[in-house]
Amino acid sequence: MLMVGVARVGNEPVARYTPDGKPVMDISLAFDYGRKGGDGRRPTQWVNATMWGERVERLQPYLSKGSQVFVTLSEPHIETYEKKDGSGQGFSLRARLTELEFVGGRRDESAGDTADASGAPSASSRPAKAAAKAPGFDDLDDDIPF
What we know:
Elements: E1 2-9, E2 15-17, E3 23-32, E4 44-52, H1 54-59, E5 68-82, E6 89-102, H2 128-132
Parallel strand pairs: 4-6
Antiparallel strand pairs: 1-3, 1-5, 2-3, 3-4, 5-6
């Protein structure tokens, strides 16, 4: 099963390494859903996502608390844990982050290259000159049946 949507990064992600040297990063993601309540806010679903591999090192400098991202998450599941205050069990929605694309500007509006989770630049980070050469509606044939 996949989860796809726009979320905000809920904490400052920090890369770490497994004992065998593989980069990994946990990212807290906030997804808004449903209707606005009386306070004018929509409910939020938090997902703790994990990103693996070289893309961790490439994306970490661009990910910060509040960044708006479009993500694809795989393997969503609920984990249980004992609450720190000893009041019983807690539940956490967890998933593996498989794709990530920046959709909002950085807070300082000096956004660098955007990239998917594989580290490849997204379409929005291509040079403007390449986008200007892309075919437009004027280049389409007039005999298209719709």
